[in-house]
Amino acid sequence: MDTAPPLSPTARSTVRRSAKRARTDRAELYAVLDAGLVGHLGVVLDGAPVVLPTGYGRREDTLYLHGSTGAATLRAAAAGGPVCFTVTHLDGVVYARSAFHHSMNYRCAVVHGSARPVSEPAELLLGLEALTEHLAPGSWTATRQPDRKELAATALLALDLAEASVKVRTGPPGDDEQDLAAPVWAGVLPLRTVVGTPEPDPLLPAGTPVPERVAGRALG
Question: Which pTM value belongs to this model?
Answer without folding.
Answer: 0.90
